[in-house]
Each structure stands twice: as structure tokens, then as C-alpha cells.
Amino acid sequence: MSAVLKEVPxxxxxxxxxxxxVLAIESAVYSHPWTRGNFAxxxxxxxxxxxxxxxxxxxxxxxxxxxxxxxxxxxxxxxxSHQRRGHGAALLRKAQALAREQGGRRMFLEVxxxxxxxxxxxxxxxxxxxxxxxxxxxxxxxxxxxxxxSVAL
Length: 153
Prior knowledge:
The protein is of the alpha+beta class. Helix content is about 30%, strand content about 40%. A 7-stranded mixed sheet has the order 1-2-3-4-5-7-6, sandwiched between helices. The longest helix is centred in the middle third of the chain and has 15 residues, at about 85-100. It is globular and about 55 Å long.
């Protein structure tokens, strides 16, 4: 009997050369995506920015800021062609672990009310609604609220 080794997605620190691929995903999955400047600023601010790759293919990424015991998940995205395969959960699991390692005791994030898949994922990880930010996100016709979620780490 022979074993076939399956390639496993690898998490790595995001760097400037990743930004073209990151922006391609960002633009494909959001109507109002982050800009190159948003990602570059996050890298320069030394936020925890990670990519998830399978070989050369970028599957997804996250941007995390941790300070004063609070972790803020600023962005977590998975390429459309790789969604619903557990990559979002893997990224979130790693973001939480890195937040704990950096002294985070609680994690916060905002999610659009229209992002039901994201809300389901976050609920599975124990996130609970703590607030609503009115008109937080730009939307096709005006602004969309943000549901603020939090979980103890």
C-alpha cells in the first residue's frame, strides 16, 4: 500500500509582495474593498497580518491588531473559489491563537448584517453580538450597519 501525501495549506506572515494577490481576493469578495494603502499601513504598523496558501495559491488572509489586552480582527477573507472548505475557520482559529499569545483576553470584530456566512462562522467560535454601529460600512446605496461581535479568548 502506498500513501499519497496531501498538500496542506500553510500560514505565513503577509509581506508587501503578497499585496497584489491579497488585493485580487479583496476586490473579488467585497463591494467596498480595502485599498493597497490599508494593507500597507497594517504591515507598517506591525499588525499581525497572515496569509494562507496552498502551494502558490493564496486561499485567504487576516489582519489582527492586539493592544491593551484587546484583539481586533480587522479583516478576514477567503478567496471565493476556496470558500466553504474550512479555510475561514482555520484562519480564525490561528488569529485567536496569535491574539492570545500577544496578551489578548478578548477579541472584537465588525461584520455586515448582510454577511450571513461570516456571522455563522463567528457564532460557531463563540462570538456574541455586543453592539450595532449605525452606518459603519459603505454600501451600494448609502451605508450599512456593522454588527459588533466579541468573544473571550
